[in-house]
């Protein structure tokens, strides 16, 4: 008989699970954004998800407004996605070879946005890291321009003034990144055209790429000012630099064609390289770097820019991504748009009623709230940091207490899915006045 069964003594409450986790997992979490550092308390351990709901280890159900940080466009455990995954699992977990489904997913992506080539990777971090390497390989230049408050994953060069968990912890960057790497990343304020003009005038010959979130969603949402993305396209092109368009978060979520559909598609331009993640994996680890053939074909095995992955294009992940995108119909986006607008109206109503000064920043179906910002809104990272961040913790905990799971940081977007139905919205509506009053205190 083995002695490994600890079921009788295993922790079952969120607090006990967190205590046990801290003994074996740094900070008790496998990604810092899951920690409750900025809102306080023990993170909630989830054991089940269905539609718009999550269930925690104590059996409490929450309406989920995080949607696994974006992937769950159709809600949790959508039957078509689950079916596809079951079939893929039955056929084998990983082959380490080419597969028909990776081809179909690449073709599906290339049919939705104007990219010639798609290379699958496993995380958004790999996608942006590869895009930067490709841009350097293509231009034979070293510098990369990024914007303060934008998050592009955790590769060394992209952690300077990053959003998401780096913003939540108020870190300037990360220890362990060499000065040389940091020096090759030029950090500029978002929405600031003159800063870009000055930088390109001074160092244009050295700049390989500008990387931008198609619409920033990792310092809270920041709406790109009218024409800003088009300006990025123009200034990179005229200086021989590439534009890397990070749609890991917004891709096939901000709209049916991502944020590009609301920006480049309308204005008639395309970036050189794109990165996708989240929705294209439907909840499984998949991301992609994509773009123009001349640049993408620099990748190994065709070209000199090396990139690889044991589990890249994993068949189970491909099945989840394919089923998600195949079921992401116009009606799905209409539903998400409607629910997201309804949610915003409910939120604004509750905050206004409670007298809480705030502004809403929106990027397609994505939005977030900032406190104390009604006068000027939030246009860059400095604005995001200057808001009344202290109001978010009581707001968050009141929502949690009333059965709504929000991102545990004010610097994150709110995510809805097509599974958010009337009854989920009613639960949110019932929770919001409590949270608004807590935020007002
Ligand atoms: N780029 C953006 C815009 C993101 O929002 C994220 C993650 O949130 C990433 C890149 C990194 O993706 P991953 O967490 O899969 O490495």
Written overview of the protein:
With 441 residues, the chain is of the alpha/beta class. The chain has two domains: 14-77 and 329-440, Aspartate Aminotransferase, domain 1; 79-326, Aspartate Aminotransferase, domain 2 (3-Layer(aba) Sandwich), CATH 3.40.640. The protein has helices spanning 14-24, 79-91, 100-112, 124-139, 165-168, 179-183, 193-203, 228-238, 264-267, 293-296, 315-326, 330-353, 381-386, 392-401, 422-440, and strands spanning 46-50, 53-56, 61-64, 117-121, 143-147, 185-188, 207-213, 242-247, 273-276, 287-291, 358-363, 366-371, 404-405. It has a seven-stranded mixed β-sheet with strand order 4-10-9-8-7-5-6, with helices on both faces. The protein has a four-stranded mixed β-sheet with strand order 1-2-3-13. A hairpin with a 4-residue loop joins strand 2 and strand 3 (61-64). It binds pyridoxal-5'-phosphate. Pyridoxal-5'-phosphate (PLP) binds at residues 69, 123-125, 128, 151-153, 164, 213, 218, 246, 248-249, 277, 287. This is Glutamate-1-semialdehyde 2,1-aminomutase. Keywords: Isomerase.
